[in-house]
Amino acid sequence: MAKEELRTISRNLQELQKKLSLLIDSFQNNSKVVAFMKSPVGQYLDRHPFLAFTLIVFIVMSAVPVGFFLLIVMLTSLAALLGVIILEGLVIAVGGLSLLCILCGLGFVSLVMSGMMIASYVVVSSLINYWFSPRPLTQQNTSGDFLPAMKSADFEGLYQE
C-alpha cells in the first residue's frame, strides 16, 4: 500500500512538473518577456535572480499603500476644487512622507521575505529530491539485516594495504 501511494505521489509530482514547465515555457516565449529580457535591465536581473525576486515581492507588497496614497491625492484634489487649497498641500505632503516611510519598510520586509522564500524553496526541493530519488533496492544478508545492494566496485580501495 505504501508503494502504491509513493507511485501515485511521484506520478502527481511528475504531472505537476510538466504543467509548471509548460507554464514557464509560455511565459518565456511571450514576445514582451523576450523583449524585456534582451534589454539591459532584463539581462542584469537575469544575472541577479535574488534581486529580481526581491523586486517582484516589493512590487506586490507596495501596491496597497500606493493605492491608498493615490486615493488620498484624488480626494484632496476634489477638496481643492471646493476651495480648501492649503489643506490639500498639507495632506499630500504628510501622505507622501508616510508613503515614503511605508515603502522603505516594505523594501526591508521584501528582502527578508524573499530570502526566507528562497531558503525554504531550496530546502523543500532538496527534501523532495531526496525522498523521491531512485534508490538501489535493499537485499537481506544471512544474518537477517537489510543492507543496501552495492556492487563490488563500490568497495574497491577501501581495504588497501
From TrEMBL:
Signal peptide (residue range): none
Annotated membrane topology: Multi-pass membrane protein
GO cellular component: endoplasmic reticulum membrane; lipid droplet
Subcellular location: Endoplasmic reticulum membrane; Lipid droplet
UniProt-listed Pfam families: Promethin
Record keywords: Endoplasmic reticulum, Lipid droplet, Membrane, Transmembrane, Transmembrane helix
Residues passing through the membrane, by range: 50-73, 80-108
Family: Belongs to the LDAF1 family.
Name of this protein: Lipid droplet assembly factor 1
Gene source species: Rhinopithecus roxellana (Golden snub-nosed monkey)
Lineage: Eukaryota, Metazoa, Chordata, Craniata, Vertebrata
